[in-house]
Amino acid sequence: MQAANIFDGPDENFFDRLAQAGITIAVGLLVWLVLHYAIRLVVKRAMVERTPLAHGSLRWAAPMLRTIDPVTRALDNERRVQRAKTIGSLLNSVVTAVVAMVTGFYVLIAFEIDIAPLLASVGVLGIAIGFGCQQLIRDFLAGIFIALEDQYGIGDVIQTSEVIGTVEYVGLRITRVLAEDGTLWYLRNGEILRLGNRSKGNYKAPEEDAEPVPAAGGAAPAQGAPPASSASGSASGEANESAE
Q1: Which of 15, 31, 86, 185 is most buried, by the most CB atoms less than 10 A from its CB?
Q2: How many helices (H) and strands (E) does the chain have?
């Protein structure tokens, strides 16, 4: 009877809860794997280089499209790959955080733990982190919108209030720009308030002012020679003195 009471007591409930928690973790892991696999497929599909010649409706334009600059096509491909990787990494991070949080809550529920105080603590902690990391969150949000809206990418020439140069890297937090003088700038995405993309619009470089051309047959004044006005003034002064 005592042995039966041992197995029918709290230990049996504990093993049931442990089994329920194990099933919850297994389901969460399965959901995480499926979502990550789906994101990987989408990213890989977006990274595949596609040319207009692959479409049957544009085969008539094949002779003209073959003359596209290969350097431009390579930059576009690199830009698309970098953008797809950035968005894929962001989605993987979001999926991991959400699945881990939901799975952890269900595990606690399986052990009959009240999660209401925990939710309140998580809310307060999230508010504290939000206030303490405002600039970091601002940079990440700006990087997300830069990637989604395709404001600029690798190979574009951009102009900000700080620098003018070519974009070499676009991340969720910083943008790396190579300036015209060779300086490598690291710009925080949240601090870029005004930006112009010279590669997307019809930008035209300002014409430089031409240097004055000397008149034909005219000789340049010798170094140290007085100007003509001063020479004529001195000559007239000498003539007046001699007359007196």
Answers
A1: 86
A2: 7, 5
* pLDDT tens digit sequence for 151-181: 998 888 999 988 999 999 888 889 999 998 9
The DSSP code for 70 is H
Instruction: Tell me if residue 144 falls in helix, strand or coil.
Output: helix
DSSP state of 186: E
Q: Are 177 and 162 in contact (CB under 8 A)?
A: no
Rounded to 5 degrees, what angle do the CA atoms 116, 120, 125 make? 145
Q: What is d(CA 173, CA 187) in angstroms, rounded to the nearest whole number?
A: 9
CA distance 157 to 57: 33
Per-residue confidence band for 22, with pLDDT thresholds at 50, 70 and 90:
very high
In the chain, the amino acid numbered 59 is R
Which tens digits make up the pLDDT trace of 30-66?
999 999 999 999 888 887 755 444 445 544 454 444 4
- 37/197 Cα distance (integer angstroms): 35
Characterize the bridge pairing of strands 157-160 and 164-170.
Answer: antiparallel
